[in-house]
């Protein structure tokens, strides 16, 4: 598994990027990074605070810097924030510096998985379902255009999804591996 490139997880809020990314890194004995966590650690404040004080534009600047820095590392697994694909510069860094995996789930699952968490400012709206649907319409094409692989997370738990990613990524990197003894 040492030959595997960086693995970058993209997808919408609640797709499971942070949860599955951590499991995936453990399975591959890789270092794990999460761009949302990195932004908060560097700033010393949480995401709602950054949105409050600096607006979404300030958050996106911090996100682009974190993604540029983290994608320069080698041999890592990184979960991104749901909006990482908005900026072309982020999409390019992800595509050029690793294998990109789009974790796909349904809006219904996203709603269920994010319902109790107050840490996502974009969902503190009167109708979070509508927000998620609108974001999906705008971003799904960007996730697809950036990804090397698409993996569904709505039908299986995080461990099963992490194992599926290991299997599919290994094949992607070495298509002959399934023929080897
Ligand atoms: N495959 C899955 N099956 C069931 N529950 C899941 C699955 N993946 C993640 N979850 C649950 O969904 C919730 C949100 O997951 P997580 O925080 O990993 O999403 P995320 O993609 O990182 O979201 P964000 O973009 O907001 O950072 C968590 O409670 C997690 O346990
Ligand atoms: O989808 C989004 O735009 C976001 C997703 C989260 O991961 C965080 O990056 C932040 O709450 C914004
Ligand atoms: Mg996350």
From TrEMBL:
<feature type="binding site">
    <location>
        <position position="18"/>
    </location>
    <ligand>
        <name>Mg(2+)</name>
    </ligand>
</feature>
<keyword id="KW-0808">Transferase</keyword>
<keyword id="KW-0067">ATP-binding</keyword>
<dbReference type="Pfam" id="PF01202">
    <property type="entry name" value="SKI"/>
</dbReference>
<protein>
    <recommendedName>
        <fullName>Shikimate kinase</fullName>
        <ecNumber>2.7.1.71</ecNumber>
    </recommendedName>
</protein>
<feature type="binding site">
    <location>
        <begin position="14"/>
        <end position="19"/>
    </location>
    <ligand>
        <name>ATP</name>
    </ligand>
</feature>
<keyword id="KW-0418">Kinase</keyword>
<feature type="binding site">
    <location>
        <position position="82"/>
    </location>
    <ligand>
        <name>substrate</name>
    </ligand>
</feature>
<dbReference type="InterPro" id="IPR023000">
    <property type="entry name" value="Shikimate_kinase_CS"/>
</dbReference>
<feature type="binding site">
    <location>
        <position position="60"/>
    </location>
    <ligand>
        <name>substrate</name>
    </ligand>
</feature>
<keyword id="KW-0057">Aromatic amino acid biosynthesis</keyword>
<keyword id="KW-0460">Magnesium</keyword>
<comment type="function">
    <text>Catalyzes the specific phosphorylation of the 3-hydroxyl group of shikimic acid using ATP as a cosubstrate.</text>
</comment>
<dbReference type="GO" id="GO:0004765">
    <property type="term" value="F:shikimate kinase activity"/>
</dbReference>
<dbReference type="InterPro" id="IPR000623">
    <property type="entry name" value="Shikimate_kinase/TSH1"/>
</dbReference>
<feature type="binding site">
    <location>
        <position position="120"/>
    </location>
    <ligand>
        <name>ATP</name>
    </ligand>
</feature>
<comment type="similarity">
    <text>Belongs to the shikimate kinase family.</text>
</comment>
<feature type="binding site">
    <location>
        <position position="139"/>
    </location>
    <ligand>
        <name>substrate</name>
    </ligand>
</feature>
<keyword id="KW-0028">Amino-acid biosynthesis</keyword>
<feature type="binding site">
    <location>
        <position position="36"/>
    </location>
    <ligand>
        <name>substrate</name>
    </ligand>
</feature>
<comment type="subunit">
    <text>Monomer.</text>
</comment>
<dbReference type="InterPro" id="IPR031322">
    <property type="entry name" value="Shikimate/glucono_kinase"/>
</dbReference>
<feature type="binding site">
    <location>
        <position position="156"/>
    </location>
    <ligand>
        <name>ATP</name>
    </ligand>
</feature>
<keyword id="KW-0963">Cytoplasm</keyword>
<keyword id="KW-0547">Nucleotide-binding</keyword>
<comment type="pathway">
    <text>Metabolic intermediate biosynthesis; chorismate biosynthesis; chorismate from D-erythrose 4-phosphate and phosphoenolpyruvate: step 5/7.</text>
</comment>
<keyword id="KW-0479">Metal-binding</keyword>
<dbReference type="InterPro" id="IPR027417">
    <property type="entry name" value="P-loop_NTPase"/>
</dbReference>
